[in-house]
Specification:
elongated, 11 helices, two-stranded antiparallel ribbon, about 375 residues, mainly alpha
Length: about 375
């Protein structure tokens, strides 16, 4: 997917501004539990009302500043992701215009539709989430662990158990989901192919009374896609409950061991409350990262499919020494033209000679399979002569 990020160069200033605002917002969020601990330890414990009001007002100002940065950064991220997807769709379309029929046959018209729409949408969604979470979540995890450790080093040992367990679980889910995402996109291609063929061939289907077989064909493709989607949804449904369970167990452990340290005079109540908030921040950040790691495999599959289109080099190219007529006369002339389809044993056309001049009627007559359509495709250069 990194290969597609070259289309983000025009938006690098906006991206840098968005990431800076996001960093400021995370720093503000990390500072709030410390202020709350100060209120509990020094304000409430000593009954110092002016200190409580002063610190509370400061917390409110920091919160408003963080919210403003978050809203602005989110707006910039959304705009950048939408502009990126617009550029990507335009690149796919403009690049595919030069494809011959053989390239379209290799990729598939239905797959081209999926790659231009659904695959681009998957990459766009991943980019939007990466811009909002890939910077914010790691900073929050690291900052939350540092701030929690400064409150009480012994109590932070709880993270040494909980964080690795959650990380391993997310890794296993992402590893299992990767092949399923690839299969889902291919089955979506098949759905588009069946629908496209049905719509374009409706007259033939009705003429031969093939409505029922075509409906069964669509049902098979639809059922296959549904089964894969259900497998993915089932797998993804375990992520949030498992993370919440681990997060709540960690909170219980912090309250238990923190309470013992408060009773022993080794820790203050405000520090325990701040520690719980930092632990929630760490786990929510890890959950955000899990969302990124869950979406990245699907976006990577979509990015690979998009790159296949952009990396395809058209077979048909004008020769560097091609003859350019002084004026367009409108004459089409074939001299000893032969053509063989890829993988075919015999040529479809052999030594064809004719001249079609402007103002004249030229008829191409022949039985079914004699090569009339092939000849027309050669005239329009959808295929190149052999």
């Amino acid at each position: 997917m990194l290969k597609l990020f070259r289309f983000l160069k025009p938006y690098r200033i906006i991206i840098a501004a968005s990431l800076t605002l996001m960093f400021i917002q995370v720093m503000a969020d990390l500072y709030l539990p410390t202020l709350m601990a100060e209120i509990v330890n020094h304000g409430i414990a000593k009954g110092d009302t002016p200190f409580i009001l002063k610190t509370g007002l400061f917390m409110l100002l920091i919160s408003l500043g963080g919210i403003t940065c978050a809203i602005t950064a989110g707006f910039m991220s959304a705009r950048t992701a939408m502009a990126f997807s617009k550029t990507l769709r335009g690149e796919i379309f403009s690049h595919s215009i030069d494809f011959s029929i053989s390239e379209f046959d290799k990729i598939g018209a239905s797959s081209m539709i999926t790659r231009t729409t659904n695959d681009v949408m998957q990459v766009q969604s991943a980019l939007s989430i990466m811009m909002s979470m890939m910077v914010r979540a790691p900073i929050m995890v690291i900052g939350g662990l540092i701030m929690a450790t400064t409150r009480n080093l012994a109590l932070s040992a709880v993270f040494g158990v909980a964080v690795p367990v959650l990380a391993v679980f997310i890794f296993m889910v992402a590893k299992t989901a990767m092949p399923l995402f690839g299969a889902q996109q291919k089955k979506l291609d098949r759905i588009n192919m069946v629908v496209r063929e049905k719509l374009s061939g409706m007259r033939v289907i009705r003429a031969f009374n093939m409505e029922h077989p075509e409906a069964e064909r669509f049902d098979d493709a639809n059922k296959s896609l549904t089964e894969t989607a259900i497998k993915l949804a089932t797998l993804m449904s375990f992520v949030l409950p498992a993370a919440m369970l681990l997060m709540n167990l960690t909170a219980v452990a912090i309250v238990w061991f923190g309470g013992l340290r408060v009773l022993g005079g080794k820790m203050q109540v405000g520090d325990v409350m701040a520690f719980i908030q930092y632990s929630m921040m760490v786990f929510f950040a890890i959950m955000m990262l899990s969302m990124v790691f869950i979406m990245l495999p699907r976006a990577q599959v979509s990015a690979t499919r998009i790159n296949e289109v952009l990396d395809t080099i058209p077979d048909i190219k004008d020769a560097p020494d091609a003859f350019v007529p002084a004026e367009n006369t409108g004459t089409v002339e074939f001299e000893n033209v032969s053509f063989k389809y890829s993988g075919a044993e015999e040529p479809a056309l052999s030594n064809i000679n004719f001249s079609a001049k402007p103002g004249e009627v030229t008829a191409i007559v022949g039985s079914t399979g004699s090569g009339k359509t092939t000849l027309i495709n050669l005239i329009t250069r959808f295929y190149d002569v052999s």
